[in-house]
Design goal:
signal, DUF4124 domain-containing protein, 212 residues, 25% helix, alpha+beta, 3 helices, 29% strand, 6-stranded mixed β-sheet, 3-stranded antiparallel β-sheet, Immunoglobulin-like
Length: 212
């Protein structure tokens, strides 16, 4: 029976072909195939969009998946995988790092004012004339104001002669004539802290010819 039906269909096709009706049938079959192909393409696109569509509750731009491996390791990725679990993030979630508070710098200590040392010569007076046949001279100095330096140093004729903490210097064997002198204040290491002005004195000695 089936063979007879197939033969009838073949005869019908041959008949249609003889009358020029076969191309119409072929065109209808071609259009039907094109419609089926278009429907299949649309279905495939819908499926692809369904895979890439963001999961509800996650970011609309990128979906993050959590993948747990067989060894228990956890991996996060933006590519869908088998057994991948999509993660939902709050829309207000932000990666914020709080900067460590830096303590303010300590206030600068005010500069300690440097102490001002002062020394003056009490005697002899500037340009004084001293008469002493033995060449003995006493020079006395003192400090004014505070603080006090520990050491006085006498500079006589541009050379250091003696140092002490009293400021009184007794010299002997000085030759007659003009002599310059000043007194300095120093610390224990010899550093000069202050100095008096340079003064001049004149030592006179009696001549032996006059006495004879």
């Amino acid at each position: 029976m089936q063979n007879m039906t197939r033969n009838i269909c073949l005869l019908s096709l041959l008949t249609l072909a003889s009358y020029g009706l076969l191309p119409l049938q072929a065109t209808a079959l071609s259009q039907d195939n094109e419609q089926k192909s278009t429907q299949q393409d649309a279905q495939m696109n819908d499926e692809a969009e369904g895979v890439n569509a963001p999961v509800a509750g996650t970011s609309s731009s990128t979906t993050i998946y959590k993948v747990v491996g067989k060894d228990g390791s956890v991996t996060y990725t933006d590519k869908p995988q088998k057994n991948a679990e999509p993660l939902a993030f709050d829309g207000k979630t932000q990666n914020v790092v709080t900067a460590a508070k830096v303590p303010p710098p300590p206030p600068l200590k005010p500069d300690t004012p440097k102490p001002k040392y002062r020394v003056v010569i009490k005697s002899p007076a500037p340009e004084a004339t001293i008469r002493n046949n033995l060449g003995e001279i006493t020079i006395s100095a003192t400090q004014t104001g505070a603080p006090k330096a520990p050491i006085y140093r006498l500079i006589f004729d541009d050379a250091p002669i003696a140092s002490n903490n009293s400021g009184v210097f007794k010299l002997s064997g000085i030759h007659r004539g003009a002599h310059t002198y000043k007194v300095e204040l120093t610390n224990n290491t010899g550093k000069t802290l202050a100095s008096s002005p340079v003064q001049t004195l004149y030592l006179h000695q009696a001549s032996a010819l006059i006495n004879n």
